[in-house]
Every structure is written in structure tokens, then in C-alpha cells.
Amino acid sequence: LALRHFDAGLDRVVAECAVLVAAMPVGVSCAPMAERYGGDAALAARAIFFSTLASIVTVPAIYLLALWAGL
Fold first, then answer.
1. How far is residue 64's CA from residue 15's CA, in Å, rounded to a whole number?
2. Residue 34 to residue 58: CA distance in whole angstroms
3. Of 15, 23, 24, 27, which cross-links 10 as Cys (Cβ 3.0–4.6 Å)?
4. Residue 54 to residues 1, 5, 45: CA-CA distances in angstroms?
5. Dihedral of CA 57/58/62/68: which sign?
6. Helix 12-23 crosses helix 41-68 at what angle (to 10 degrees)?
């Protein structure tokens, strides 16, 4: 929606791809990185699981919201 607000001059397909990429769940690489650098790998794994589970609903919802807003 910010892309439309600021009129970034992007092609419609590029703008839709940007919206979908921004709506994606937490990246899978964060758990190994957390483990390697002494972070909370279990928390990172839970974040991956729950954000992926939620993305079943949120990704289509955000895409439809972007279409509704005229992106």
C-alpha cells in the first residue's frame, strides 16, 4: 500500500511481487543463525512455525487488501 501511496512508478507486476514478498513468513535461515551465534534457536524455530502457519491466511488477505486498495 505504501508503494501506491508514494507512487513509486513500479510496474503493477513488480509492485504485486513486492507486496507478496513483504507478506511472507519469517525466513527459515533465522533458526540456524540464532543457534550459531548464541541466540534462542528454539524461539526462532517457533517463530518460523507460527509465522508459516499464519501465512496460510495472512498472505492471501494482504494480497486481496492490496488489490482492493488499487495496487
1. 13
2. 25
3. 15
4. 20, 27, 14
5. positive
6. 150
Rounded to whole angstroms, the Cα distance separating 27 from 8 reads 26
Collect contacts of 53-56 with beta carbons under 8 A, ≥24 apart.
Answer: 54/25, 55/23, 55/24, 55/25
One-letter identity of residue 57: V
Please give the distance of CA 42 from its chain centroid, rounded to a whole number: 21
Q: Which tens digit of pLDDT belongs to each residue from 34-63?
A: 989 999 999 999 999 999 999 999 989 988
The predicted model scores a pTM of: 0.67
Question: What sign has the CA pseudo-torsion 42, 43, 48, 52?
Answer: positive
Whole-number pLDDT of residue 49? 93
Query: pLDDT (tens digit, 9 = 90+) per residue, 22-38?
Result: 888 888 788 888 989 99
